[in-house]
Design brief:
262 residues; 11 helices
């Protein structure tokens, strides 16, 4: 594995993360497995820490700009952090069965890449549905928001711990549906990034404890991703959302099919 090549790929992924909040796990994880041949268990643990550190760099800019909705972050975290801790404990408990764990991770990763692609393509339609319900049934919709946000967090906690995929893409789609009027594009990215940081840290803890982190690989990834995410965050409000989302969806479908066929 060549460190410079990893850094260049991470720079591209970091730029996408900074612009959209999407791509930390959804792009980097399959690239580590398919392009660089990293074992799935090592790739997940390394990618989770990579995502946490990369998104910390990006979220600092959103914090200064005030584009983080802390109440929404709190609601998501109530579900995601306990779910991540429980899933991480189960992964740690069964990690000695290396083949079964790697196989589970690959299967879950392939499915999540396809789900993420569908979510990206349905993003605008789900946003429109959420907006319609918010405007026509405002009282009922707002009453359900907190519980549905916590449940969305639970789902994210489980799948992110298993695959490192979902915190950005699926989280963003869920938030657009649940908060169609409240979250502007920039606030959506900032809120999604902020929630992903503690989630990635807790999800990565179990992988770290069972030796599932390649620190040299992580260093090369960060060398490229941190400049990329800072650059991308500067472009967040000007990013061409439609074309970028379509391109990401195509890449994720291809990666998902490839992973499931592995």
């Amino acid at each position: 594995m060549h460190g410079i090549e990893v850094s260049l790929v991470a720079f591209g992924v970091g730029t996408v993360v900074g612009m959209t909040g999407v791509g930390g796990g959804a792009l980097m994880m399959p690239l580590l497995v398919l392009l660089f041949g990293v074992p799935p268990k090592i790739a997940v643990g390394t990618d989770l820490l990579f995502a946490a550190l990369t998104k910390t760099a990006g979220v600092s800019i959103h914090g200064v700009r005030g584009t983080i909705d802390w109440q929404v972050v709190h609601r998501l975290s109530l579900g995601s952090l306990p779910a991540a801790a429980l899933t991480g404990w189960l992964v740690y408990h069964f990690h000695r069965e290396a083949f079964q764990v790697d196989r589970l991770i690959l299967q879950a990763l392939g499915v999540m890449l396809l789900v993420t692609a569908v979510g990206l393509l349905a993003k605008r339609r789900l946003h429109g549905l959420g907006r319609h319900l918010r405007l026509t049934s405002a009282t009922r919709f707002k009453r359900a928001q907190p519980a549905l946000t916590v449940l969305a967090g639970v789902f994210l906690g489980v799948v992110v711990t298993l695959t490192s995929v979902g915190a950005g893409a699926i989280g963003a789609v869920a938030l657009l549906y649940l908060y169609p009027l409240r979250l502007t594009p920039a606030r959506l990215v900032g809120t999604d990034l902020m929630h992903a940081i503690p989630l990635a840290c807790i999800a990565g803890a179990s992988h770290w404890l069972m030796g599932g982190v390649d620190w040299t690989l992580l260093a090369w990834m960060l060398l490229g991703s941190v400049p990329g995410v800072l650059l991308g965050a500067q472009w967040a409000t000007r990013a061409p959302d439609g074309p970028l989302r379509s391109l990401l969806a195509i890449l994720l479908v291809l990666a998902g099919v490839k992973v499931l066929a592995t």
